[in-house]
Each structure stands twice: as structure tokens, then as C-alpha cells.
Amino acid sequence: MNLHRRAAAYSLVLLLASCSSNSDDATAHHDPAGEQDIENVIYVGGVTDEALVRLLAVTPKNDPRQAVIIDSPDFGTPLSKDSPATLQFHLASQMTRAPGLLLRPTSTAPKWQRPLHEFLRLLAPEGVAHAHGAAYNGAAYYLVITGADSKPVLQVFSSQTSFTPEALDWQHLADAPQPLTLQITSAVFDTNSIPADGGPFVGGEFSFRIE
User: Using CA atoms in the order 86, 137, 68, 181, what is the torsion angle rounded to 10 degrees?
Assistant: First the structure.
């Protein structure tokens, strides 16, 4: 690493360490950083890593109204490895919609958000957290897809109820031990924090295959 990249990486690490030192939560049960690696999480729709840390710090609750219902694709048949499938879902408390009609958040994900995440990872080989921005407010969903060996293959933290993996991510999913398991956890945030009635909530687990 040249001097400029090394200095930039150190500055980022110091900044993120300073931010994380102020993120303790009275409702936290444990330190999630020690149990779940969020280095490779894809952030979509204005959510922040601090909000995700708060979500992971609390044991999810079971609430039938917050159960996730998959609109598409059909997990009953194997998905094609040739092209990424778009995941669409809604919560049981929300009205069932016609196919193709999505729940869309008020904000959409900036196109530069993931490239910036990849750039930060290049600056710091050990991996750095997602850059802090404005505190997040609203509903968010944490999606984790694991292989048959229980190792996480794809992690997404999003304000949206639809997600299409990039081609490379889809290839990683297809190459992982089958079947895959999708786990979804949701929460409602107020300035990166989760109110008492905001969850997090168990959305459900869904098994599928890519062939």
C-alpha cells in the first residue's frame, strides 16, 4: 500500500472507530461485532451501518404481523443460475399486492453507494464499515443468504422490499453449497435507534436452490 492509501485507510479507521464508540444502546444484549461479520454487507436506500449494529444488538421478536411473505421469485422451483432473480416481498400486516407491484420507499439507493463501499474496502484491506451518513429513519430489512454449510454468502441491509443481486453476487450464490437459506429481519428506526415497538422482528427463513 502506498503512503497516500495507507494514510487514507488509517484516517477512515480512526473516523469509524470514533463513530462506533458513541453507538452503545441500553437495549443491547451483546456486542454484535464479535459475533457477526458485517464487512461485506451491501447497503441500499440510505440505511447506515450504525442502524445495522443496533439491529444486530437486540434479539429479534416473533410477531405474526411482521412475518415476511415472498412475492417473487417462486422458491418452489429451482432458480436459473443464468440471470439474477429479483426478490420481492412484503410483511403480513401489509395488503397483498398484484404481481409486479412493489412497495417503494420514499428514498431510493444512490447509484454511487455500492461503488463507494467497494472503494473503502480497497483503501483498508482488513475491511471498513459502511461510511456514516445522515441518521436513518424508517423501516429497514436485513437479508442474509447462507449456503448449505451455514456460511453467509450474501448480506443486504435495505430500506426497500425488493432486491436484485449483481451478476457477480448471483454467481457466488450459484456456486455456494445448495440449498440456500434466506433469512430476513426487519426493524423500524428513529435516528438510527430502534424504539421499543420497532423490533427487530423475525421475518422468516426461506429455502431455495439455484441451478
Answer: 60
